[in-house]
Automatic annotation (TrEMBL):
<keyword id="KW-0436">Ligase</keyword>
<dbReference type="GO" id="GO:0005829">
    <property type="term" value="C:cytosol"/>
</dbReference>
<keyword id="KW-0067">ATP-binding</keyword>
<dbReference type="GO" id="GO:0004827">
    <property type="term" value="F:proline-tRNA ligase activity"/>
</dbReference>
<dbReference type="InterPro" id="IPR044140">
    <property type="entry name" value="ProRS_anticodon_short"/>
</dbReference>
<dbReference type="InterPro" id="IPR033730">
    <property type="entry name" value="ProRS_core_prok"/>
</dbReference>
<feature type="domain" description="Aminoacyl-transfer RNA synthetases class-II family profile">
    <location>
        <begin position="33"/>
        <end position="341"/>
    </location>
</feature>
<dbReference type="GO" id="GO:0006433">
    <property type="term" value="P:prolyl-tRNA aminoacylation"/>
</dbReference>
<dbReference type="Pfam" id="PF00587">
    <property type="entry name" value="tRNA-synt_2b"/>
</dbReference>
<dbReference type="InterPro" id="IPR002314">
    <property type="entry name" value="aa-tRNA-synt_IIb"/>
</dbReference>
<dbReference type="InterPro" id="IPR036621">
    <property type="entry name" value="Anticodon-bd_dom_sf"/>
</dbReference>
<dbReference type="InterPro" id="IPR006195">
    <property type="entry name" value="aa-tRNA-synth_II"/>
</dbReference>
<protein>
    <recommendedName>
        <fullName>Proline--tRNA ligase</fullName>
        <ecNumber>6.1.1.15</ecNumber>
    </recommendedName>
</protein>
<keyword id="KW-0030">Aminoacyl-tRNA synthetase</keyword>
<dbReference type="InterPro" id="IPR023716">
    <property type="entry name" value="Prolyl-tRNA_ligase_IIa_type2"/>
</dbReference>
<dbReference type="Pfam" id="PF03129">
    <property type="entry name" value="HGTP_anticodon"/>
</dbReference>
<comment type="function">
    <text>Catalyzes the attachment of proline to tRNA(Pro) in a two-step reaction: proline is first activated by ATP to form Pro-AMP and then transferred to the acceptor end of tRNA(Pro).</text>
</comment>
Length: 448
């Protein structure tokens, strides 16, 4: 993309309404614009990152064997009356009436709708196990929407639902989700720690929240510092293996890590003092096992091997897709702006032309742009007439992990500059070598 043709409305001033760094940078980098309290338009740059995050979530869900689908945002109140949650959910639920006077609602989550789909089409244990998921907008009329996309009223969530014959199978689905979430967050450059939590309005006995440690997080968390040393890394997991998934769950949940809702001082006191930590965290996902809480009242049953009708065991599993943008920025930024991890960056690298209009500099930039594009990479080429300082400031603000700087002086010596946004370190290289390096970083094979 050439910046002169893009829509990147960066702001020079820091918007006064933004209290935390991710919200400030998302506004300043022209990623979002508030439409109403807690409701945002996703401008091109923000939309690109949102899509990248969604793609990672899709890939990891499908790797774990979960099946994508799409349910609507508007739901019938009658379904929620069946589960008893229509009255329980309270003012967070946005209730709407259509022209026929029918009660509807903008879905805050989808347990009822998916259970209805399941009971309409599945009747035998032979069709199990089954896990369906979608990525769809949700609405919760939060009392205090704040911090930009972190606590929105309208927000994008991945929500998945497992249907199993037995509690043991459903717990395997729970463990499988935990494993897939560890992989998902690490691919986004995040460490998200599973912590014992409270199930709230979703209900159920087993639940873990995934928390990214950050001073601006809304949850207070208590943990054994050893847990921060655990990495999932690139291990291969057989998602069908109950043992392998359980072993990962045990490894990642055997140390003390809880949110304030389930924190127990007496148990925490058993952690050696030098390893006890109290901090704040951003909740980027939550997994639940709730047994037959929805299947029983809603009649979601299957015929088992002995011919008996039994309610299925269920769980639901959420990832805060839009919140993740904020969480990633809180975890990865400096005083100049955002620093995107390579896994989610909106553009793979920036190209800065120090002297727009200079024949050689223009030609060199065009050639680098064409080579990177041919490799399947997306550069953002600042081809505007802005002065160099302004171009650098914009690149630093929008946080592309790599920048190639091209100017007449360097070209005389046959070099361009390759700069890492994270370390700030620059290196002089031939244009070909710089392209080769970027190709390697993103796992593309350079033809050069
Ligand atoms: N039905 C279950 C799982 S599918 C569920 O709704 N879980 S949840 O309530 O924990 O939401 C899942 C994730 O959505 C949360 O972990 C959080 O990351 C994100 N989320 C929840 N509320 C908001 C909000 N107001 N703004 C942005 N993200 C939110």
């Amino acid at each position: 993309m050439r910046l002169s043709r893009y829509f990147l409305p960066v702001l020079k001033e820091t918007p006064s309404e933004a209290q935390i760094v991710s919200h400030r940078y998302m506004l300043r980098a022209g990623m979002i614009k508030q439409a109403q309290a807690g409701i945002y338009s996703w401008l091109p740059l923000g939309y690109k990152v949102l899509r990248n995050i969604e793609n990672i979530v899709h890939e990891e869900q499908q790797r774990a064997g979960h099946i994508p689908m799409l349910m609507p945002t508007l739901q019938s109140a009658d379904l929620w009356r069946e589960s008893g949650r229509y009255d329980d959910y309270g003012q967070e639920m946005l209730r709407i009436t259509d022209r026929h006077g029918r009660d509807m609602l903008y879905g805050p989550t989808n347990e009822e709708l998916i259970t209805d789909i399941f009971r309409s089409h599945v009747g035998s244990y032979k069709d199990l196990p089954l896990t369906l998921y979608h990525i769809q907008w949700k609405f919760r009329d939060e009392v205090r929407p704040r911090f930009g996309v972190m606590r929105g009223r309208e927000f994008l969530m991945k929500d998945g639902y497992n249907f199993d014959l037995t509690k043991e199978d459903a717990l395997h689905a729970y463990n499988r989700h935990l494993v897939s979430y560890l992989r998902t967050y690490e691919r986004m450059g995040l460490q998200a720690i599973p912590m014992r939590a409270d199930s709230g309005p979703i209900g159920g006995e087993d639940t873990h929240e995934f928390l990214v440690l950050a001073e601006t997080g809304e949850s207070e968390v208590f943990y054994d510092s050893q847990i921060t040393e655990l990495k999932f890394g690139d291990r291969e997991i057989d998602y069908d293996s109950h043992e392998e998934c359980r072993a990962v769950l045990e490894e990642f949940t055997s140390r003390y890590a809880r949110t304030d809702e389930t924190h127990d001082e007496a148990v925490f006191a058993q952690v050696p003092e030098e390893r006890r930590r109290t901090a704040r965290g951003i909740e980027v996902g939550q997994i639940f096992y709730f047994g037959t809480k929805y299947s029983e009242p809603m009649g979601a049953t299957v015929v088992d091997k002995d011919g008996n009708r039994v309610p299925v065991h269920m769980g639901s599993h959420g990832i805060g897709v839009s919140r993740l943008l904020g969480a990633i920025i809180e975890a990865s930024h400096d005083e100049k702006g955002i620093i995107w991890p390579e896994g989610v960056t909106p553009f793979h690298c920036g190209i800065v032309n120090l002297k727009q209009g200079d024949t050689e500099a223009d030609a060199a930039c065009d050639a680098i742009y064409a080579s990177l594009t041919a490799l399947g990479l997306e550069p953002l080429y600042d081809d505007t007439n802005e002065r160099a300082g302004g171009k650098f400031a914009t690149m630093d603000l929008i946080g592309l992990p790599w920048r190639i700087t091209v100017g007449p002086r360097g070209l005389k010596n046959g070099v361009v500059e390759l700069t890492s946004r994270r370390t700030g370190e620059s290196e002089e290289l031939s244009p070909e070598a710089a392209i080769e390096r970027i190709a390697q970083i993103y796992g593309k094979v350079s033809k050069g």
